[in-house]
Amino acid sequence: TLGRGRYLPATFRLAAAVSPPTAAPIRFAAKLAVWPYRLSVARARGFETVVLDQGILQSAWCVLLEGSLRRESVLEKALTEILAGCAASFAFISLDLDATLAAARIQGRGPMDAPFNRGNPETVRLLEEHREHLEQVVAAGVRATGAPHLRLDASRPISENAARIDAFVDAVLGSPVC
After folding, report:
1. Sign of the alpha-carbon torsion through 91, 8, 131, 119
2. Is there a contact between 15 and 25 (Cβ–Cβ < 8 Å)?
3. Within 13 A of 133's CA, how many CA atoms are on the CB side?
4. What does the angle CA 80 – CA 8 – CA 55 come to, to the nearest 5 degrees?
């Protein structure tokens, strides 16, 4: 994918729309450009349904991590191209979660090289500062695909959210999942 570079122009335009300019958005833009290939591998292996945790939308969010987005239309265009290139149907689930609790969960995952894992105070600051970016990314993904979107309140009991996820997945797939 990177060798042919089909999706790089759109993702690099997104990285260029982040100010101040740094190397981080370019690195994350390259990772974003690989998603169509990654999903083509899943299709080639015969998977009908793929569940992504920290997938395409999070990759797009990470492009915005080190700065501010000057033109939201560039985000929309990049996501539209990447999601269309995936040749898949999508459904999105997002959690509305307090930044302090999110930072604690990120830190609790252990030694991962997650972009937002920068030590609790810095992680909380990044999550709070970039919450609007996440909202923009999710909205752009939904607009680009017309996909169903379930938004969950992470402060609700896990059993309640799990039941909502089950019902959502059943509705999206058209039948109960075993």
Report:
1. positive
2. yes
3. 25
4. 55
Q: How many residues does the chain have?
A: 178
Tens-of-pLDDT digits for all 178 residues of the chain?
A: 556 678 999 999 999 999 988 888 999 999 999 999 999 998 899 988 888 877 899 899 889 987 889 888 999 999 999 999 998 889 999 989 888 887 777 776 666 566 665 566 877 888 888 788 889 999 999 999 999 999 999 889 999 999 999 999 999 988 655 4
Fill in the DSSP letter of residue 18: E
Q: CA–CA separation, 137 vs 119, rounded Å?
A: 24
The number of C-alpha atoms within 13 Å of 67 and in the hemisphere containing its C-beta is: 18
CA distance 155 to 158: 8
> How far is Cα 56 from Cα 95, in angstroms, rounded to an integer?
15
pTM of the model: 0.84
- Distance, CA of 11 to CA of 26 (rounded, Å): 8
Cis peptide leading into residue 9 (ω within 30°): no
Q: How far is CA 147 from CA 28, 44, 84, 135, 155, in A?
A: 24, 23, 12, 15, 25
